[in-house]
């Protein structure tokens, strides 16, 4: 079996956790059961990311489009987030994990906002894995909000339009201070980005896995990393085989 090259472990892996519903319906179970098992897969994946030396792990937990689902399912997903934070926050903190939340807080129930804020606040000085939860997140909204804030700063005379470059723009995104993901994984066979990290994934490698999210874990993560390590990342330059920079 091929083994991972420690020097080529990506610093940041982002995951679109897809297929909870299909996993459940294939087993004649309610969709909720797929989401519940999805949380278990998430726990395994956080653990594996820590062990493999990944520094940032971002997961797409609830997209701004997920509000279109039936109210009962939205409520189930909110309930799972509440339970996840209540049950796991102390342990994640004890493991030195720093939690960051990206997305829009507006429109969320006040107790959810309070739990998300508490998670970030409690763990802000931790130095281990940074676990980024994309919750009520949509990349177009994130980019539009950044553009508006920049326009307001220009209008107020605080920012010279000539100073607007990629670095400045990125500092107005929710992910300020977080390096771009080198690898984006999507489970369940779908091959699209679905409004996830559109700016940040400009140069990411994509690995699409066939299995559904509730079955994901260390083994699937290692497999995705092996695919990633076999790729030649050129960032628009030349292949490392002919003198480019890896
Ligand atoms: C995709 O499966 C998954 C989601 C929409 C939500 C991901 C949520 C979890 C893993 C559990 C929640 C965890 C936290 C911490 C909130 P799908 O329902 O789109 O599956 P389908 O495409 O097969 O229907």
Describe the model.
With 246 residues, this protein is α/β, with parallel strands linked by helices. The chain has a single domain (6-138, 180-231), classed as Decaprenyl diphosphate synthase-like (Undecaprenyl pyrophosphate synthetase), CATH 3.40.1180. The chain has 7 helices and 6 strands. The chain has a 6-stranded parallel beta sheet, sandwiched between helices. Helix 4 links the parallel strand 3 (98-102) and strand 4 (130-137). Helix 1 (20-26) crosses helix 2 (31-52), helix 2 packs parallel to helix 3 and helix 3 runs parallel beside helix 4 (110-123). The longest helix has 24 residues, at 71-94. The model has no long low-confidence stretch (mean pLDDT 95). Farnesyl diphosphate (FPP) is lined by residues 17-22, 35, 38-39, 42, 61, 66, 77, 80-81, 84, 213.
Largest β sheet strand count, sense and barrel closure: 6 strands, parallel
**What is the tally of beta strands?**
6
How many domains make up the coordinates? Answer: 1
Percent strand: 5-15%
Short description:
By secondary structure, the protein is α/β, with parallel strands linked by helices. 41% of the residues lie in helices and 14% in strands. Residues 17-22, 35, 38-39, 42, 61, 66, 77, 80-81, 84, 213 line the site of farnesyl diphosphate (FPP).
